[in-house]
Structure formats: structure tokens, C-alpha cells
Automatic annotation (TrEMBL):
It comes from Paenibacillus rhizovicinus. This is M15 family metallopeptidase. One of its GO terms (biological process) is proteolysis. Gene3D superfamilies: 3.30.1380.10. InterPro entries: DD-CPase-like, VanY-like_core_dom, VanY/YodJ_core_dom, Zn_M74/Hedgehog-like.
Length: 209
């Protein structure tokens, strides 16, 4: 049904595995499955939410379906008295490249690889991910966010709006990334609720089909 099997959704080129279904809301991007350097979603819009910074930036964008869902998620939070702000959404391949290169320079490539994505391996390039934070952690992206009331609300309610917390603490080995309580990924309500109920990573969930 979801047809995300590696054999059907990837293509080997020059020793790299590229995903061939970048526009699927269930596209699986990780350290083993890359987006082409030229992939840019064709339906990016500014998410209808408040941001942690002022001024216009491509970081405010997501694909339409994800942006609409994020707007509803933030409105739901507000109704519960929870203040969320969006920090970083869409990121192009070249901008991911400069971020990773800067981290590799300051931390070494191996360490940088544990907390920053190689260009092509970032979900932010799909336009389906947003980093979210709150005043309680000064709009930072840090693991302590998971223990704040806003982080807990996000964990509890994201699935109701079609999002998953993509990089969970107990699944670091599976996802290849450290715990990121701030990074939400749109997959649609049905799948998000399923993933939450089953306690799976997106990797493990898609491997079942
Ligand atoms: Zn992120």
C-alpha cells in the first residue's frame, strides 16, 4: 500500500542510493537514502504559523499539505494554552551543504554526522519537516525541550495533526540521528497515529509493507 520498499523507491548511482519518490508524503530520507541535489518541492508555501524570527526566509516554507497541517497543529496548541513557534522548515540542498560543511569544520566530519545531516540526507529538503520550539528554551533546538510542557504537548498531540516526532530517544540507532524532540515530520494523520500507537520509527513502519 505504501510502497516504500527500497527496491521500488530507490536507484543506485555512483555508490549512492537515491530516493525515486521524493514527492510522496511517506518518502523515507535518511543516511542510507538520499534526495537528489536538484530536488526542490514544487508546492512550497509559507507555513501559516508564528516564527521564532522576523523577516522572510525560505525556512518558513513547507509543502502545502504539511504547511496547512502545521497551522492546525499550532492552533490546537494555542487552544490548550501552549505557545509554539516554528524555527526552521524547508532547506535546500545547497543550504544544507553549507550548514554541514560549517559543522564538519568546527567538530570534525564524523561528529558532525551525528547531529547534522549530509546534504541530500536531510528531511528538511522534502518540505515535510519543521523544527519547533518555545520561549521556555529560548527558541533553541535542544534535547531539554522534550521535558518542557510544550515539548510534552507536541509529543502527545503531533500525531492528531499528521506529524511524528521523527527522531526519538529510544530509536537513535535505527534512525541514525540523536533525539530531536523539536523535529516534526508530516506523514498524514492515519500513518502518524499508527506510528505513534505502534511505537515505531518511520523506517520500521515502512519496512512492514
Ligand atoms: Zn529538523
Amino acid at each position: 500500500m505504501y510502497d516504500n520498499a527500497a527496491s521500488r523507491t530507490t536507484l543506485q548511482k555512483g555508490g549512492i542510493t537515491y530516493v525515486t519518490n521524493p514527492t510522496s508524503p511517506l518518502v523515507l530520507v535518511n543516511k542510507k537514502r538520499e534526495l537528489d541535489s536538484g530536488y526542490v518541492p514544487n508546492d512550497l508555501v509559507k507555513a501559516p504559523v508564528e516564527f521564532s524570527f522576523s523577516g522572510d526566509s525560505p525556512k518558513q516554507q513547507m509543502r502545502k499539505v504539511a504547511a496547512d497541517a502545521l497551522g492546525k497543529l499550532f492552533a490546537g496548541a494555542k487552544q490548550d494554552g501552549i505557545e509554539l513557534k516554528a524555527v526552521s522548515g524547508y532547506r535546500s540542498y545547497p543550504s544544507q551543504q553549507s550548514i554541514f560543511n560549517a559543522y564538519a569544520k568546527s567538530h570534525g566530519e564524523e561528529e558532525a554526522n551525528t547531529f547534522s545531516a549530509h546534504p541530500g540526507q536531510s528531511e528538511h529538503q522534502t518540505g515535510l519537516a519543521m523544527d519547533v520550539s518555545s520561549a521556555s528554551v529560548h527558541y533553541g533546538l535542544e534535547q531539554s525541550y522534550g521535558a518542557t510542557k510544550e515539548g510534552k504537548w507536541l509529543e502527545a498531540h503531533a500525531a492528531d495533526y499528521g506529524f511524528i516526532i521523527r527522531y526519538e530517544k529510544e530509536h537513535e540507532d535505527e534512525t541514525g540521528y540523536m533525539y530531536e524532540p523539536w523535529h516534526v515530520r508530516y506523514v498524514g494523520v492515519t500513518v502518524a497515529k499508527d506510528i505513534k500507537k505502534l511505537g515505531l520509527t518511520l523506517e520500521a513502519y515502512l519496512a512492514r509493507f
